[in-house]
Specification:
92 residues, alpha+beta, four-stranded antiparallel β-sheet, 3 helices, 33% helix
Length: 92
């Protein structure tokens, strides 16, 4: 995690919500997605994904069973079985 203030219980809560997706572990998935979408700030990225407000977002269930929630701003969250598969603050 980053050097910002983060308790162990918060770190566990944020990581527990994440799914490993196509990666070997959920930690590998987090590292990949932070590098791709998180501008290097792991804690900020995980907090934004965890706190994504689905209310008002366009919801699409995909063929693999995952659900994508998209906002007009381009921000999106992908979940499968209640766990986060991916998050992006905007389309890149």
């Amino acid at each position: 995690m980053d050097k910002e203030n983060c308790s162990l219980s918060e770190a566990k809560k944020l990581m527990k919500r994440w799914d490993k997706g196509n990666h070997k572990t959920n930690s590998d998935s987090i590292r990949y997605h932070v590098k791709k979408h998180g501008e290097g700030n792991t804690l900020k990225y995980l907090r934004k994904a965890y706190n994504f407000n689905k209310k008002g977002a366009h919801k699409v269930t995909r063929i693999d069973g995952s659900t994508i929630y998209k906002r007009k701003s381009g921000e999106y969250l992908i979940e499968r079985d209640g766990k986060i598969v991916s998050y992006s603050p905007s389309y890149k």
